[in-house]
Amino acid sequence: MKSILEAVGEDPTREGLIDTPMRVARMYEEIFSGLHTDAKQHLTTVFDEPYSEMVLVKDIPFYSVCEHHLVPFFGTVSIAYLPQNGKVVGLSKLARIVEEISKRPQVQERITVTVAEMIMTELKAAGVYVFVEAEHMCMTMRGVKKPGAVTITTAARGHYADNDAARLELLNMIK
């Protein structure tokens, strides 16, 4: 960090910057804390509930960091799954996996697919649909400078991969 400050023409020894390298290191430790965790742990406790209809948790906020520019991107994740064999997971667990997966140098597409695959595999769901909507600071504050531009990614597995009507119903609920 000290070298970066010097490279942009700053004096890293001036009062306001003396502790900046240490603060930045602590910040990166926090925002990359997902590198050292296994988000699957949150899906190991399931409950027996004879429910086989859609479960949708929408607009889960997340913050991540673009691995290409190391600047933030942020938005929301909506997750729908179809329980199978009477097994459901606590709703907060879906938010927890989003939190942990997003706390890594990342791309939005990977968050989307990782969440979908993890839920499908760990819960043995009949179907999963993940909808991620985010604003990327690498497009807002640098480069093309287009604030407000939103990127949407989706992943459909199982029942939702093959069923246009089910996906449309879900998209109407999410939006």
List keywords for this structure.
elongated; 2 domains; GTP Cyclohydrolase I, domain 2; alpha+beta; 7 helices; 175 residues; five-stranded mixed sheet
The total count of helices amounts to 7
What is CATH's topology name of the largest domain? GTP Cyclohydrolase I, domain 2
Distance between the termini: 41 Å
What's the total count of β strands?
7
Q: Evaluate the radius of gyration.
A: 19 Å
The appropriate CATH architecture of the largest domain is 2-Layer Sandwich
As laid out across the biggest beta sheet, the strand order is: 5-2-3-6-7
Assign an overall shape: elongated
Question: How would you describe what is shown here?
Answer:
With 175 residues, the chain is α+β, with helices and mostly antiparallel strands. The protein folds into 2 domains: 30 residues, GTP Cyclohydrolase I, Chain A, domain 1 (Orthogonal Bundle), CATH 1.10.286; 138 residues, 2-Layer Sandwich (GTP Cyclohydrolase I, domain 2). The protein contains 7 helices and 7 strands. It has a 5-stranded mixed β-sheet with strand order 5-2-3-6-7, sandwiched between helices. The chain has a two-stranded antiparallel sheet with strand order 1-4. The radius of gyration is 19 Å and the shape is elongated. The mean pLDDT is 96.
